[in-house]
Write a structure and sequence with these properties.
The complex is a heterodimer.
Chain A (H helix, E strand, L loop, with lengths): L1 H56 L5 H21 L4 H31 L7 H53 L2 H77 L1 E7 L4 E4 L1 H7 L10 H7 L2 H16 L4 E8 L5 E12 L5 E10 L1 H22 L4 E5 L5 E4 L2 H6 L3 H4 L13 H13 L5 E8 L5 E11 L7 E8 L1 H19 L3 E6 L4 E4 L1 H7 L3 H4 L13 H12 L4 E9 L5 E12 L5 E10 L1 H63 L6 H32 L4 E4 L1 H11 L2 H4 L4 E4 L5 E4 H18 L7 E7 L13 E8 L31 H11 L4 E6 L3 E9 L4
Parallel strand pairs in A: 17-19
Antiparallel strand pairs in A: 1-2, 1-5, 3-4, 4-5, 6-7, 6-10, 8-9, 9-10, 11-12, 11-15, 13-14, 14-15, 16-18, 19-20, 20-22, 21-22
Chain B lengths: L6 E4 L3 H13 L6 E4 L2 H8 L15 E4 L8 H10 L8 E5 L4 H10 L3 E4 L4 H18 L17
Parallel strand pairs in B: 1-2, 1-3, 3-4, 4-5
The chains are: A alpha+beta, B alpha/beta.
């Protein structure tokens, strides 16, 4: 029995021990399950928080906890799945939780993507937010349910175990009563049992307490989390409100700025457009955002390629693309937009997303175009202005010159740019210009007229007139602006006009103008003096006031002719003065025409010719007297001339005859007395004959000289070379002077009297031959010389110079001026024969031809005789 | 030739007459040399009038005519000769001291056959006058006589 009891007690104790061990395992298992469930919840919460952080901030860093939580969550769920493999009810709940976490994960990733794609816009999707919130709450309640179930199961098992323990205790007590012997053993066992139980209970209590604490903690934590969540929701709402507000203001701002934004998720191939972008493109928002290809079609065809090129380049280089281009709206309207596009890449560098903005800059472009046009228009005005426009600073440095300056000053604008305006200013005008600049600087904005002179590129002075304004204070100009024009011509005309006025005023002639009906319109000082009427008295009166009554019809005739635009020159007539005197006047009248050539009046210039008339009379008288005197003198001269001719006729006949007789009878006497007269007598007779012949020669030469002066000239073009050759041939020079070496140069034709010129050459050549005949190697050179041959007097007319040069005895230049005189000889007749007429003849002939003669020589070295003939006959 | 035609010398200067006759003689001319001392005598001789009313010699082979002469000068004589139907063909040689162009022009214009300037140089004078005499008296074929040598009576 004892053994049986012991066996029973032992069995019970073993069973009990097994049960205790089981319950211990059971507690441990529940512990693990609860831990993992909490982990799931914690991860889920972490992901949620992390996701919200990202949605709010958009910062990728916020997603680190999300990613971590997602991994932890998977692990915890897997562990739970294993732990609950023998608990179908819990397993089923777990599946529920798994599918719920999947839902929350989906919602979360969706919101992340939305945030990426659409930015804060995505936060407007409250439905998804609430979906997520609800799913989360469900997860939370499911996990709580699972936790409760796990705890309940544990409690049940432990209660079962307690009941079993009590049974065993009762069994043991019964057995002890039955078997004392067994008491000890039993006691030992019981004690051990008790101890075990105590230990188990303590452990259970401890676990229970710990579990309770954890649940409490968990609850607190969850409550905290809930509070946080609550706060987050509030915050969320606040943010959402703010976002909505900012979104609204963003939308408003986009609308106002005409900036539309877009986002293109390249992974999802989903594009999002802002409201404004739809409006800008005139696209119905119901159509949704277009695909990229469709978008490209909206771009103006001309800008498309360029845009695509810029786009690809920017995306490839990972840069923002900034581009202006035109879009064509469905209604055909063309708008200019400014686009900014950014690309986003994932961690592997793949381009996953593009977003950007487009701003409608049509108005700006139009405004810019308008500004450009306006600028172009004003520039064109300036550059095509006939006036020069200059911009200078306060120190006269040239900042800008309009192109007209080139036309005015000859310089190109660039040649003068940077130079100082004073440089080309007329020295007399520099003080004026400085004064003007000082005035301008003292009075900004006030225009000053300027009139000054500047030097044209070609050197002459220009009168310039313009207006200068100090616009230094004007930020768009910052200069002294002068617009000016060339008034040189006007100044010249003004000067001419002033001169003319002064001429008219200072003229002694009466200069008067009148209208076509004969009314006086102007009256100069000369008229005042001549007619004794002041300008005030005369102007407005009819011209007839100065015309004597008997000549009144004349005025009618004059006006008629003037009306036909005819002039009347030096019309001699009489006019009457204020005091009734009549004066002789010469009147010239010319029509005055207006700009269109129509005759509007007449100018009359009247000269008092009373004195002139008297002078003319005097001149006529003097002329007459002069004519008489000339006639008398001519008659006298003619008489003298006749006498001279008679004289020379007589000389040639009557003077020669006795000489002939002297020679003749001396010769006859010599012949007659040849046998009786001694040698001395014969020599005397010879001398008589020679003297007579000499006299005859003198007379011949003198007559020829006289003839040269009187004979009429008959000038022709003469073949000079032939003439000289004839002279040499006919003079037998080559025979008579065989030793002479002749050099005859080219002799151009001349215009002269052939016979006279022949005489000239003959005289000069025979002279040269004669005076070189005693030289061992005589040379005679004939030719022409350049115009510088006789330098002392420059001829007023073109002339040709000829010369004859010999290497004969020459002459002393002291007597050079005597050479051409009549009967002037430098050699005695025993040295060289001659009468001294030859050169005088040469001089006379050449003088009559309008030429000159001269000679150069040196005793013993030869002489050069030159003469000139005008190229054209005088 | 039965009767040589004479040479008529019209010269007022006896010196010249002597020199000319000398020259003609030197040239061995055998023609009669009729000398008249002025134009009037010359015309009388030629027209066979006055002192020459009975002249029967033929008209001269040549007339050597000086220009400057008292009373009727050489030019007038020449004019009269050329104006006379019977005399107009008789050769006339002007023999004078100068070559005044005016004289040359006038005498040739009046029909002079030659114009000889008396050189001052005697040798030249002898030569020139002699050659002229030989030419006109011997070499030159004179114009036919306009009247027979025997016709001596003046017409009037």
């Amino acid at each position: 029995m004892g053994a049986l009891v012991l066996l029973l007690v032992g069995a019970a104790a073993w069973w009990n021990a097994q049960r205790l061990k089981d319950s211990h395992l059971l507690v441990d298992h529940a512990h693990q399950v609860l831990n993992h469930l909490e982990q799931v919840l914690a991860d889920e919460l972490g992901m949620q928080t992390s996701m919200r952080g990202f949605v709010i901030t958009g910062s990728d860093e916020m997603l680190i906890a999300y990613e971590r939580g997602r991994g932890g969550l998977q692990i915890a769920l897997r562990e739970l799945h294993q732990l609950l493999a023998d608990n179908p009810a819990q397993l089923e709940r777990l599946h529920d939780v798994v599918s719920l976490t999947q839902t929350t994960a989906e919602i979360m990733s969706e919101r992340i993507a939305a945030r990426r794609a659409r930015g804060l816009e995505s936060t407007r999707d409250t439905q998804r937010f609430l979906d997520g919130q609800q799913a989360m709450e469900t997860v939370r309640s499911r996990i709580q349910a699972m936790e409760n179930e796990e705890r309940r199961q544990l409690r049940d098992r432990l209660a079962q175990f307690d009941r079993a323990s009590a049974t065993h205790l009762r069994t043991i007590v019964f057995a002890a009563g039955s078997a004392a012997g067994l008491v000890l053993a039993a006691a030992v066992i019981a004690r051990r049992q008790f101890q075990l139980r105590q230990r188990t209970e303590a452990a259970l209590r401890e676990f229970s307490e710990a579990s309770e604490g954890r649940v409490r903690d968990r609850t607190t934590e969850i409550e905290g989390a809930n509070r946080v969540l609550q706060q987050e929701v509030l915050e969320r709402k606040r943010v959402e409100n703010a976002v909505r507000k900012s979104e609204a203001s963003l939308k408003e701002a986009q609308k106002q700025a005409k900036i539309g934004s877009w986002d293109l998720d390249l992974v999802a191939q989903r594009a999002v457009w802002s409201e404004e972008l739809f409006r800008m493109h005139g696209r119905d928002p119901a159509l949704g955002a277009p695909s990229f290809a469709d978008f490209v079609q909206m771009v103006h065809p001309e800008d498309r390629d360029e845009l695509l090129r810029a786009h690809s380049a920017a995306m490839a280089a990972n840069l923002s693309m900034l581009k202006e281009y035109r879009i064509v709206r469905p209604d055909g309207q063309i708008r200019w937009v400014f686009a900014r596009t950014e690309g986003y890449r994932d961690e592997r560098g793949v381009l996953v997303r593009r977003s950007g903005t487009e701003q409608d800059i049509t108005d700006r472009v139009a405004a810019e175009e308008a500004v450009r046009n306006s600028e172009r228009r004003f520039r064109a005005l300036i550059e095509h202005s006939a006036d020069g426009i200059s911009l200078i600073d306060a120190d006269n440095n040239i900042l800008y010159l309009s192109p007209a300056v080139t036309r005015i000053e000859g310089y190109t604008a660039s040649e003068l740019a940077g130079r100082n305006g004073i440089e080309n200013t007329h020295p007399d005008d520099v003080p004026f210009i400085r004064e003007v600049v000082a005035q301008l600087l003292a009075n900004p904005g006030q225009p000053f007229p300027v009139l000054w002179r500047r030097r044209h590129k070609e050197g002459h002075w220009l009168w310039l007139e313009g207006v200068a304004t100090n616009l230094v204070h004007d930020s768009a100009v910052k200069a002294i602006v002068t617009n000016y024009r060339d008034v040189t011509e006007r100044k010249r005309i003004e000067e001419i006009r002033a001169r003319l006025v002064s001429i008219v005023e200072s003229s002694d002639d009466a200069i008067v103008s009148k209208t076509l009906d004969g009314t006086i319109t102007s009256w100069n000082r000369g008229a005042e003096k001549m007619f004794g009427l002041t300008a005030e008295a005369a102007i407005g009166k009819p011209m007839l006031i100065i015309i004597p009554p008997e000549r009144h019809p004349e005025e009618k005739m004059i006006l008629a002719r003037i009306q036909r635009a005819e002039r009347i020159d030096h019309f001699a007539t009489t006019r009457s003065t204020a005091d009734g005197r009549l004066i002789d006047v010469s009147v010239s009248i010319a029509p005055i025409k207006d700009g269109s050539g129509r005759v509007v009046g007449a100018s009359t210039i009247a000269r008092d010719i009373s004195a002139q008339k008297a002078a003319q009379e005097e001149i006529r008288r003097l002329n007459l007297e002069l004519e008489h005197r000339v006639a008398r003198r001519t008659a006298q001269l003619e008489a003298v001339n006749k006498e001279l001719e008679a004289f020379s006729y007589s000389v040639s006949h009557d003077l020669r005859a006795p000489l002939r007789h002297i020679d003749g009878f001396a010769s006859l006497l010599a012949k007659h007395t040849a046998s009786t007269l001694d040698e001395k007598g014969q020599r005397f007779l010879g001398t008589i004959s020679r003297a007579a012949r000499q006299m005859g020669q003198l007379i011949d030469d003198l007559l020829s000289f006289s003839r040269m002066g009187r004979a009429p000239m008959n000038a022709h073009k003469i073949d000079h070379a032939t003439l000289v050759a004839d002279v040499i041939r006919e003079g037998n020079f080559t025979t008579n002077y065989p030793l002479v070496e002749w050099t005859i140069g080219e002799l151009p034709p001349v215009h002269a009297d052939a016979a006279m010129l022949r005489q000239v050459w003959s005289n000069l050549i025979s002279n040269a031959a004669k005076y070189s005949s005693k030289t061992p190697k005589p040379r005679i050179e004939i030719g022409t010389a350049g115009p510088s041959a006789k330098p002392e007097t420059l001829p007023a007319i073109e002339e040709q110079i000829f010369f004859v040069r010999d290497n004969g005895v020459g002459f002393d230049m002291t007597y050079a001026d005597k050479l051409f005189g009549v009967f002037q000889r430098l050699h005695g007749p025993t040295e060289f024969e001659g009468t001294g007429i030859g050169l005088a003849n040469v001089h006379r002939v050449i003088s009559r031809h309008g030429g000159r003669t001269w000679a150069e020589g040196k005793v013993g070295e030869g002489a050069t005789f030159s003469f000139s003939l005008p190229e054209k006959p005088a | 030739m039965s009767s040589l035609r004479p040479i008529l010398l019209v010269e007022d200067s006896p010196n010249d007459v002597e020199l000319i006759v000398t020259a003609l003689n030197e040239a061995r001319l055998v023609n009669e040399i009729a000398v008249t001392n002025d134009g009037e005598q010359a015309l009388n001789y030629l027209l066979r009038q006055g002192p020459y009313g009975k002249r029967s010699s033929p008209d001269p082979a040549v007339i050597l005519l000086d220009l400057k002469m008292p009373k009727v000068d050489g030019r007038e004589v020449l004019r009269r000769i050329r104006a006379d139907a019977l005399l107009k063909l008789v050769p006339v040689v002007i023999l004078t001291s100068s070559r005044e162009e005016q004289d040359l022009f006038e005498t040739y214009n009046l029909g002079a056959n030659a114009y000889l300037v008396k050189p001052v140089d005697f040798e030249a004078f002898i030569s020139a006058v002699g050659k002229a005499g030989v030419f006109w008296a011997l070499l030159n074929e004179p114009p036919p006589l306009m009247r027979p040598a025997s016709d001596t009576a003046p017409q009037k």
